[in-house]
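Writing this down once: the sequence line spells out the residues, with the fold written below as integer tokens. I am pasting one below:
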Amino acid sequence: MKKLLFSLACATFLFADTYDLGLESYKKQDYKKAYDYFIQSAKDGNSQAAHNVSIMYNNGDGVEKNLNESIKWLEKAVDSKNPYAMTQLANNYMNGYIVEKDYKKAVALFREAALLDNSEAAFNLGYMHTIGLGVPMDNKEAVFWYDKSASLGNQAAQVNLGFMYILASGVEKDMKKAAFYIKKAKDSGNEKAISMWKEFELEQYL
């Protein structure tokens, strides 16, 4: 499972030198140098650097692929309350990747990351409540998390939230709100939103 390196520019000014040098080296595909910089930054306390080291071990970028090392560095980032690392580890638990499948652990990590404004984590919580995966099926709770994710710009959440307003699922039917959220995703080029906009003739509800 190939993972993408997070190129977070806001890694904190305290770690700017080694972290930014690591990003620049990675972009140039000088993975060995990037790895060395990220290791140094992680040892200095940068949780995103630790997450990046985890990704490099997962992908085998500049180092021999080692999933045990990948999890070790991912857990270091999680221990530092890094929301991206929390979301990644939650995905691992949800899919049984490297770790044993555990929906309850996935939900707990997604919730913690979502409360730190990670849009993917909030969306996943909404989805899990929609279908009852690891939690009781609860459309009102699903709407809550989709709304949070949508407010953070997640297109999939905007589409799902809009659809729930169309279906009156967990909320009262409200075509104006459906149009509002689906338009946000449509205007960002989301194909599903574009299709739904035409199918439900949402232009009339603006």
Summary: Confidence is low (pLDDT under 50) at residues 7-15.
